[in-house]
Amino acid sequence: MTALISHTSFDSLDPFAQSVFWRGVLGFHDDPDDPNDPNHPGDEECMIASDDGSQRLLFIKVPDGKQVKNRVHLDLRPAEGTRDRELERLLALGAREVADRRMANGTGWVVLADPEGNEFCILRSDAEREQAR
């Protein structure tokens, strides 16, 4: 027997704003199986999902902001293009750079934060890693 992950939940001051940011980052959409579909400003919970529904994120309203470093975070890789191109796109969506861990040889990653300060990383694409071999 095993368990399957239903969704990943994030505490949030503004669930709707977080869902909009992460929809743009991941290309997700409001979850049609969510009784609150579509998400609206002021909602207590906002769920977004991948096109095939296999990945879902839930943003839940809480009264207090982030206090310390995340204990869990997402590591992302570009679906197409390069890590550095994706970094530019994520910054334009509202991410903030926290730490640059890129190395001179092209390896490494960049630590970012979403609009509420939750850290996540952008890694090299599969094509970049394959090219380096």
From TrEMBL:
Per the database record, which ranges form the Glyoxalase-like domain? Answer: 9-123
Q: Which InterPro entries match?
A: Glyas_Bleomycin-R_OHBP_Dase, Glyoxalase_6
Domain of life (superkingdom): Bacteria
Looking up Pfam families in the UniProt record yields: Glyoxalase_6
Q: What PANTHER family does the database record attribute to this sequence?
A: CONSERVED PROTEIN, HYPOTHETICAL FUSION PROTEIN
Protein name (record)? VOC family protein
